[in-house]
Amino acid sequence: MAFRDVALEELLKLLPNALLMGQGASDSIDDRAIPANSSQITTVAIRVLDRESGHAELQWLSRLENHPNIIPFTGRCTTRDRVYLVSEYFNNVTFYDRLTEDLTWRQVLRVIAGVASGLAHIHAAGLVHRDIKPQSVIVNQDFHPTIVDLNLICQEGEITDVQGPTYGYFSKEDVNEGIAKPSQDMYAFGIFILQAVMRRQQVFSTQTPVVVPHILDSMQTAMTKRGHAVDERLMMRGCSPSQAKKVTTVALQCVQVVNARPTSTQVEKELKKELKVLTILHV
Question: What span is annotated as the signal peptide, if there is one (predicted)?
Fold first, then answer.
């Protein structure tokens, strides 16, 4: 991403109409109090990071070209103890919130295909997202998805720990390796796909998390009964039996052992092919 340097004075002018996120968002900028958000329309989002974390994130983000499915950070401002990243403000809801709505198959497929495209772009830059989940993706009224949560992104091969990624979106094998790999994102994306096609907000059926998310057990039960895991309501709203089986198979492949998982590019290609089928059929 190409960052424009934003002067401190310009940043202060943006603050009254900005959504502040991250570390120290309620603190001060160089000892100047951040004004409270006014009643005016929010125009930008400003991510607040400590200097060390901010410079690391800038290093990774600068390697990403603008992509339609990844939030664009357009400006940066560095002070003595903070880094501020400025992006467009998206007044949309997360895909997690929309899972409770009466969705069509086209809407669901458009979201998962778009997220796959964003992931493929991240992986092509030699980076790993490390926190793909429905809460990390916002969707607009046309169900165009945008990956917005990039705070755990890191370089492929970097040593990591289990403290970062959300529980339920990584396998025990990934934890034991302790090294950031695109295959870890693919496991998380497999869970993401299952949540989308099964219309499940939760990956666990109890309040106590376990190593293997319960949603995988639910998938196996559904496949035994119907040959796929797609929710019956989506079957009545545009999903054919063949597409249900294909997308379920993609999700299943993503949650296999590390070496058996497909790449994000392979998954993107497969999902976009299925989306094209809907366009041809005018579904």
Answer: none
